[in-house]
Amino acid sequence: MPKLNSLTLDCVVATGSVVTALLLMIGLNPWLGMTETPFLLFFGAVPIAALYRGRRGGIIATVLSALLANYFFIAPTDAFSLDTVGSSRTIIFLLEGVLISTLIGLLRRAQQQTKASLRQLKASESKFRRLVDSNVIGVVSADIYGAITDANDAFLNSVGYTRADLVAGRIRWDEMTPADLKYLDRSAYEELLTKGKNTPYEKAFTGKQGQRVPVVVGTALLEDNPEQIISFILDVSERKRAEQQLAIQYTIARALAEATTISDAMPLVLQSLCESLGWQMGCFWRVDPQTQTLRYLHGWYSPELDGAALIQANQTMTFTTGVGLPGRIWERGQATWIPDLVEDAAFPRKAIALEVGLRSVFGFPVSLNQDILGVIECFSDRYQEPDQNLLQMVTAIGSQIGQFIERKQTEEELQASQALFQSFMSYCPINAYIKDESGCYVYVNPSVERAFNRPLAEWLGKTDFDFFAADVAQTFRANDRAVLQSGQMIQVVELNPLDDDQPHYLSVKFPLKDATGRSLLGGMSIDISDRKRFEVERERLLQQLETSLGQLEAVINSMTEGLVIADPQGNILMFNPAALALHGYDSLEQVQHHLREFPNTMEQVCSCIKRSGFKNSNIGLPK
């Protein structure tokens, strides 16, 4: 039987995983409504294909999943056609699938490389010695009681010890394991005594300066001396750092996305950043533009740390440029790292920080373009070596936070402005309104609502012809056009003959433009009639409108052209006699109940409804 090539196997595994996911989704669809989450089970097919066949298999599974989800679960189904939302969801799935496939492919490759390295280490004694001397991987000789008798430079360099420390007996593997990870050693030790070797496992060593060094450890007993062991130690700091940075970027992005205000965002950002790094405290200092100082604004510390004293000290302090760590970062505009607070004389809060139990700190600017908006500090209770990659990443995060602050400030200022405007208009006794170029109302203030006894929703999208007599509405429209065409404000007495009375409103109309440049008309109308006459005239207008509605119904019934009336959801409310005849119906009972039954005119109806102001209507389209 011919051997399948790699690409064929990739396609077979990817197709198998995707088809399995498809069958499960089709089977579960009647109960779980899989069309609401069209990619749900396909998210399982992609990592399975990537896990067994690497990045290429995962990408093949991603593309197949996107096509099948589009065809079977994204409306319109049974067709390769997408609307804007469907396209966006598909693109996001493709990007996530490629990212997942790439990450799993990298991890799979790393695992394969690690296994290959371990196999090569066991090949022969000469190869083993060459490997030890090459310092590609840490190699340690020790006894089962914890004493390390020999180690190569790769191991010593990764944990920060010297050969003199080794000779002096100051390095013990049992003492280098953090207390919270000793259970891993106990499990591996039991396996070692039972099988003579243990399965490689991940743990961490505590370095000479107190820093944690993530490693993969594999250990075996020597056959001629069962109390002696040899360990192969792979420093995975770079891999862990890359994973950590991805996790930090994700958690910060999520924290910013979930926050609605700056005050809500900063505690979440500090907590997410510190927890992702395994650091114990975070502080945010905000630039005060009036005093040109940095003031403490927000802080977070882990429950295991008694950080209240440092938080209280921060609340009473300010920093100018160049003073303290926040001031130095503000002055230089660059992230700064202090690996050991004990040795830093330019840290004013050193005594309090050390008393709390903190030892290392780094900080970075929160910036927008070239402007520094604030500084974030992160503290650790252990010695931490400077990490330039991490500093570069948090500098980018600082810019991201700066953009968020600017955006939220703009939103808050806009909300405050809108709230002020609404508050002013709520108590303004003058009728105020805004219309678009076609004469449709886009805003009326509460005074208008009260004056005409109509809520805001009844005004939006309507014109004066919907509320006033034709000659009155025509006069209003002529005045509106004069303002829009000339671009000049006018002041005019507008007649609104309610019950044969004289002019009622002194109107001031002026041109406006919204944020998109659209031309609008603003107006303010002052009632110059006495209250009693206004009430009498309004009652007459209501009667006139009621009469007009009856006349309108009669006109509709006598029309020679078909007229269909439906609500914003597409439910048919009325067919006039001409429409019944046009569609071949004998009576209203025969009429279908929804506009989707008339697909030829559906798109025109939807368009008309949207132009009428029902922008949130939900009319089901025909399949």
Q: What's the CATH H-level homologous superfamily of the largest domain? A: GAF domain
- The strand order across the widest sheet is 8-7-6-11-10-9
**How big a fraction of the residues is strand?**
15-25%
The mean pLDDT is 82
Please tally the helical runs, counting DSSP H or I stretches of 4 or more residues: 20
The biggest sheet, with number of strands, parallel, antiparallel or mixed sense and barrel status, is:
6 strands, antiparallel
Could you give the distance between the termini?
49 Å
User: What is the count of distinct domains?
Assistant: 5
Helix content: 40-55%
Tertiary shape? elongated
Tell me how many strands there are.
Answer: 18
What descriptive keywords fit this protein?
Beta-Lactamase; 18 strands; 19% strand; 20 helices; five-stranded antiparallel β-sheet; alpha+beta; 623 residues; disordered C terminus
